[in-house]
Design a protein that fits this description.
This protein is α/β, with parallel strands linked by helices and 170 residues long. It is built from eight helices and four strands; from the N terminus they run αααβαβαβααβα. The protein folds into two domains: 1-64, no CATH class; 65-170, 3-Layer(aba) Sandwich (Rossmann fold), CATH 3.40.50.300. The protein has helices at residues 8-16, 24-34, 49-63, 77-91, 107-112, 125-132, 135-138, 152-169; strands at 70-73, 98-101, 120-123, 146-149.
């Protein structure tokens, strides 16, 4: 993993998760993200896509910490929770503050989480759109270094289904 440009600290932390060698998608995108490239990547489920974008985000944050560093939008609460938990567990030793913004959780608590200047925000579109209507929160998103749409194919599928249903009922 160190050959991809990740620091010894991150490689050592990965070993605690029994992650020793990268998947193909990680080999292909991590070095590019670390160099500042914009990436659109596709890989099958279970191929390491999530770490392919999270590891360079964590690495670059560790090099130059700042609030509101990354926004990761995912289509489902379960995926948001999984990503948030990894960032929280993995990144907390690096001082990374993360917040999970999903439906079914207390809105006021989620809104107030922005007071603590989270570095990585993991959100579902519905709850995020509600929060973005709050002008006091919107200003924080101008500081983002990374914007990630994970499982984008699910978003586009949902959009197509919604349009189809809308045409059917109108």
């Amino acid at each position: 993993m160190q050959t991809l440009g990740l620091s010894k600290h991150i490689v050592a932390a990965l070993r605690t998760y029994k992650i020793i060698s990268p998947f193909e998608i990680q080999e292909r995108v991590i070095p590019k993200i670390l160099k500042g490239a914009n990436i659109i990547a596709y890989a099958p489920t279970g191929s390491g896509k999530t770490l392919a974008f999270l590891l360079p985000i964590i690495e670059l944050y560790c090099r130059d910490p700042s609030p509101y560093f990354a926004l990761v939008i995912v289509p489902a609460r379960e995926l948001a929770t999984q990503i948030y938990k990894f960032i929280h567990d993995f990144g907390s030793s690096s001082g990374i503050k993360s917040v999970e913004i999903i439906g079914g959780q207390n809105y006021v608590t989620q809104k107030s989480a922005f007071i603590n200047y989270p570095n990585i925000i993991v959100a579902t579109p519905g709850r995020l759109s509600l929060l973005l209507k709050e002008h006091s929160i919107t200003r924080h998103f101008f500081m983002l270094q990374f914007f990630v749409l994970d499982e984008f194919d699910s978003f586009s599928e949902f959009y197509r289904s919604t349009i189809s249903l809308n045409k059917f009922f109108t």
